[in-house]
Design a protein that fits this description.
The chain is an alpha+beta fold and 233 residues long. The chain folds into two domains: 8-103, Glutaredoxin (3-Layer(aba) Sandwich); 109-221, Glutathione S-transferase Yfyf (Class Pi), Chain A, domain 2. It is built from nine helices and four strands; from the N terminus they run E-H-E-H-E-E-H-H-H-H-H-H-H. The protein has helices at 31-41, 60-65, 90-101, 109-137, 148-167, 180-194, 199-202, 209-218, 221-226; strands at residues 21-25, 45-49, 73-76, 85-88. The chain is globular.
């Protein structure tokens, strides 16, 4: 049985089965990337719900795993060379799990980098912009008298949806087949309507390809399971 005692976080969230991947996450657009990927690959894992609403990522134990204090993070007891690996940043986790399993990353070298390119697009553009839109449209920002910040992120989010709409013209998924590029985007695009309620202000109904793509992704059983961060028995 693997020994994970050197990881301080396991003292707060003990591993029932230390031989499987330990997932520390919460059902946010970033958090569900890792759980969806784990469900899709079929890798054995144990989920620990880290409640960001209660600031559970800011204790010294969690910061020892991710000094940036964000979810998700994983501990793989069987990392490279058979040694335990701790990893944070959702994009890095997606790439690692794709390479570990040989799944959801196209084998052709050029296509591989193209897939990573779209993951980086989500990390650098979609996530930050959609997140700011949520703040200024739904949360505290909605009470700001100055609406210019909100309008800026609305406009940029609409532009980014246009990029996705164009990319999905004539194709079912971001790449030639379902991949980590899709997994990276599912939670964020879903949040626009399900969580932020920004359908109308973004003119989401005027899009054709993006809603159809999201529906295809959400129909996948592994995606449905991964949208929840639940403890495994």
């Amino acid at each position: 049985m693997a020994d994970l005692s050197s990881f301080p976080l396991t003292k707060i969230w003990p591993a029932a089965n230390p031989d499987v991947i330990q997932l520390y996450s919460f059902p946010t657009p970033n958090g569900v990337k890792a759980s969806i990927m784990l469900e899709e690959t079929g890798l054995a894992y144990e989920a620990h719900a880290v409640n960001i609403m209660k600031n559970e990522t800011w204790g010294p134990e969690y910061l020892a795993l991710n000094p940036n204090g964000k979810i998700p993070a994983i501990i793989d007891p069987n990392g490279p060379g058979g040694k335990p690996l701790q990893l944070f940043e959702s994009g890095a986790i997606l790439i690692y799990l794709a390479e570990k399993t040989g799944q959801f990353m196209l084998a052709d070298p050029a296509k591989r980098y193209e897939t990573i390119q779209w993951v980086m697009f989500q990390m650098a553009a979609i996530g930050p912009m959609f997140g700011q839109l949520g703040f200024f449209y739904k949360f505290a920002g909605k009470d700001f008298e100055d609406k210019r910040p909100r309008d800026r992120f609305v406009a940029e989010s609409k532009r980014l949806l246009g990029v996705l709409e164009s990319r999905l013209t004539g194709r079912d998924y971001i790449m030639d087949e379902y991949s980590i590029a899709d997994i990276a985007l599912i939670g964020w695009v879903r949040a626009l309507t399900v969580f932020y309620g920004a359908d109308e202000i973004l003119e989401y109904a005027s899009l054709k390809n993006v809603p159809a793509w999201l529906e295809r992704c959400l129909a996948r059983p592994a995606v449905q399971r991964g949208l929840e961060i639940r403890a495994r028995g």
